[in-house]
Amino acid sequence: MASAKRNFTYEEDDEPIHLKKPKQQLPSPPVLLNSADCDLDFNIECNGVVGYGLNEEGFGYCWSGARATVGITKGRYCFGCIVVSSQRVDTDDTELDQHNLCRLGVSRGDDAVGALGETKNSFGFGGTGKFSNSGNFFNFGDRFGVGDIIVCCIDLESKPFGSIGFLKNGKWLGTAFQFDVDSLGLGVADSPLGLGLFPHVLLKNVVVQMQFSVEQGLVPLEGFRPWALAVTDGNAVIGPSLSDPKDCELIMMVGLPASGKTTWAEKWVRDHPEKRYVLLGTNLILEQMKVG
Fold it and tell me: What is the model's pTM?
């Protein structure tokens, strides 16, 4: 009986199917507090999940803020914040309830990190039991402080309005605010500013530990996914990075008093938002010393 022969070609790259290894998926970037998107006096430790501001001498009067490395443009996601401890300060000339505070929420990637809850595109819940947006403060939920765990839940899916709500120690405090998602301009193509909503903390003499994943201790509210999953879900934008030191730039102004240095610098900062300049000066310090 004649045997049938089959001809085939074999290239060097070919491997028998049973020997082929599945393609490895690149790991998603972790969600951490961002050293490239925080105030200059903000410290980040413990692999990016613990944050606090300087508190020595005059720094005890100052708020200090930071955003996370990953923002979202759609979906329902949540993240948590543990108020770990208070920092000792010598600020006896301020009210006792203004010594050690945490404000937690989200802001758009191009907002000032020191103004959480004080601009149109930022939303914050503070330890005094107040929620704020656009500089308007109103009573919401309970006061919170050392030992408390606050979970922030962002809904960008509900129509016609998205919303932000919070849990305190596992108890749902309710929806704090609703907003028009479209007006936020999230997910703008090719934007160098990261126009998503980013986790944001603004601190005054407290230490916090962030929870962006279940592995970090986050207990999500039903219907909301851990923030860290937004990358693999395709709903994330990545914040700025200091991976290339050449991207950093310092401009030093030299001139006589009242010669227009500050005016020129303020215009330069406004005209180059993609550079994320920090304008150092007395005005910055006074802004960080606000009460609230």
Answer: 0.80
Take residue 239 and report the two structure tokens written for it: 């914040």
- Cβ 84 vs Cβ 247: under 8 Å: no
User: What per-residue confidence (pLDDT) applies to 164?
Assistant: 97
User: Is the Cα torsion angle 228, 238, 231, 170 positive or negative in sign?
Assistant: positive
d(CA 22, CA 54): 48
Residue corresponding to tokens 């703008």: 188
Q: Please, what are the domains in the chain?
A: 33-238 (2.60.120.920), 245-288 (no CATH)
Q: Is the separation of the CB atoms in 31 and 70 below 8 Å? A: yes
CB 142 within 8 A of CB 149: no
Q: Based on the number of CB atoms within 10 Å of its own CB, is 108 exposed (0-12), middle (13-18) or buried (19 or more)?
A: buried
pLDDT of residue 292: 56
Give the span between the Cα atoms of 186 and 290, in whole angstroms: 29
Q: 20: Cβ–Cβ under 8 A, 6 or more apart, which residues?
A: none
CA atoms within 13 A on the CB side of 289: 13
Share the mean pLDDT of the chain.
82
Q: Which two tokens stand for residue 128?
A: 């005094």
3-class SS at 26? Answer: coil
Q: How far apart are CA 145 and CA 157, in angstroms?
A: 31
Tell me how far apart the alpha carbons of residues 151 and 210 are, in angstroms, rounded to a whole number.
10
